[in-house]
Specification:
10 helices; mainly alpha; two-stranded antiparallel ribbon; globular
Length: 370
Amino acid sequence: MNKRIFIHIFLFVLTVLTTLISGYEWTTGKVFFASHEPVLVRFKQGFPYCFGFLLFLTVHEFGHYFMSKKYGIKATLPYYIPMYIGSMSIGSMGAVIRLKEPCQTRVQFFDIGIAGPLAGLVVGLGLMIYGYATLPPESYIFSIHPEYVKYGGFPEPKEYQNIPYGLTLGKPLLFKVVEFFMPSEASIPPPQEIMHYPYLFTAWLALFFTALNLIPIGQLDGGHIIYGLLGIKGHKWVSKTTILIMVLYGGIDFMRLESIESTFEWVLNSSIYLLLLLAIMTKLYGKRSRLWLLATVLVMSFHVLVSIMFPHVKGYGGYMMFAVIIVRFFGFEHPVARVDTPLNLKRKVLGWITLVVFIFCISLQPFQIS
């Protein structure tokens, strides 16, 4: 047996352990290592989260793996990435496979790239539908937040302003579509409580990670799909445009005057924002200093104008941080296939449908911590 298989097994077992711990903490609102309940009881309570999250990660990665095998391209088994850093840890940063050989055609790039998100999306939808179909009564929340008894159930949205609820999860469109068909008497949890419902929370994470992978930049899954659909020139244009959209939207958070309480805070926010912006622009335009300098000035001016004219408009700084990570460490370009034959009609239709699905999976405000 290949010695490397033990690395995969070890990482998987460790990820099971960390997701069991995180699952217990999210589901119950208690700290795993401070609880006096028996360990097996804690693991049992964390199992639904562990099962849902690892099912999604495994199916997503094996979607890539089996498609690469179909084309005879050598690939590693998934490397699971365990992560537990205490409260508000999701237990894993995902899983990855590594292709040992390059793809030779646009079709191979497209098929391998799209297989993971589509396979994972099926799991995410299944978790979401099952989670909504098996919702416990609203009184379930009292076991986690006994202080809600005075509200008779979930607090009204305006009442959360005075409650230290911790985390709010922005619901993507797919969640809202399913909720639209739910019976009116269903105890649908608000965004502040989704994390206590393990199947809904793992469905939310599945859609979130699917959306991140489908962002059409570089060699993300969405980048492979765009390359298959539009070729190298189209990919480069879409990739750069997507990065600029993420910068424009994400930068609003750094420059929003409404959230700035002092001159020092404004200078600090602006400095961080400028460094992030320069990190992206210098990578996009390379040695063409006039171009990246002009782009930096224009983007800065846009955000100053928005902060003055529309002070209540919100962005999400996390998307700008994600753009920096992708551009600086992974790049925004895509390799050219040796056989650059365009896709057939069926693949083109599937590709565009998948990118529409991306819109239904993404949330403009994924995490809000209070």
